[in-house]
Design a protein that fits this description.
- The chain is mainly beta.
- The chain is built from 1 helix and 14 strands, in the order H-E-E-E-E-E-E-E-E-E-E-E-E-E-E.
- The longest helix has 4 residues, at 25-28.
Length: 250
């Protein structure tokens, strides 16, 4: 798993509140081959904890369709890390963190063509409410030769930059009514601006709302609406999405 930010922790469908990842997920939730180290210091008198998560991997935190995770094309690792602080009180839990990533982009073979990603994240849990959010900034140098990803080989590894942010509010209503265990309505706002080197940037945003229903301890039903909007650099199109899923866990 990635160590960047917080959204990678929701990669599994039974853990994720909703169905669709955020617009930033493609940069932070990818899985890769490498080594990872985690350290956590519990500070009991302050009801707090500090954590450090460090990884050296082939492709960093980008998803496989952007950078392949199995082989290091550039021959050098991508180093990523997150530093976190959490405050755990009886009525409220607060977690904040800062993440960074740097190393050769793993869709081409020049180790001097670097990718740099940084971000900040926050989570607040109180009385069944969960407010979470993240800001991510991505820079990729122009590579040498063709670009190779899980989707195929492309002529040019263009320079790329993006900034994305999202915030989600969810309320978990726990109850015991026959098979019904929990009902969780949620809403998320997300925004992204991205551009390849030499081209105009494209800005989009999205509003996601949905409902999750947990039955027994094994079945999860989800329904979701995504309202997609092109804000700048691209024509507006009718691309809103209604989706649903059923998850069985054991």
């Amino acid at each position: 798993d990635s160590v960047f930010g917080i959204e990678y922790q929701d990669n599994q469908a039974n853990i994720r509140v909703g169905i669709t990842p955020s617009l930033a997920a493609r940069y932070t939730t990818g899985q890769s081959t490498g080594a990872k180290l985690f350290y956590r210091l519990h500070i009991a008198p302050l009801w707090s904890a500090l954590s450090l998560n460090v990884a050296a991997t082939n492709s960093g935190s980008m998803v496989e369709s952007l950078q392949g995770p199995d082989v290091s094309l550039a021959g050098a690792p991508v180093v990523s890390a997150r530093v976190g602080y959490e405050l755990n009180l009886r009525v409220i839990q607060i977690k904040v963190g800062a993440s960074g990533l740097r190393g050769p982009r793993n869709d081409q073979r020049d180790r001097r063509a670097l990718q740099t990603v940084w971000g900040v994240d926050a989570r607040v849990f109180v009385a069944g409410l969960a407010l979470t959010g993240e800001l991510v900034q991505v820079y990729e140098d122009e590579g040498v030769g063709p670009k190779t990803t899980a989707l195929g080989v492309f002529p040019v590894a263009s320079g790329f930059g993006a900034r994305a942010a999202w915030a989600q509010l969810a309320y978990a209503w726990s109850l015991e009514a026959g098979a019904l265990r929990r009902i969780t309505p949620y809403a998320r706002y997300e925004w992204r601006r991205a551009a390849f080197e030499g081209y105009s940037s494209i800005t989009v945003d999205r509003l996601t709302t949905g409902l999750r229903i947990d039955l027994w301890d094994a079945v999860i039903l989800k329904g979701e609406l995504l309202v997609n909007r092109e804000r700048a650099g691209a024509p507006a199109v009718a691309n809103n999405v209604y989706t649903s899923s059923a998850v069985y866990q054991w």
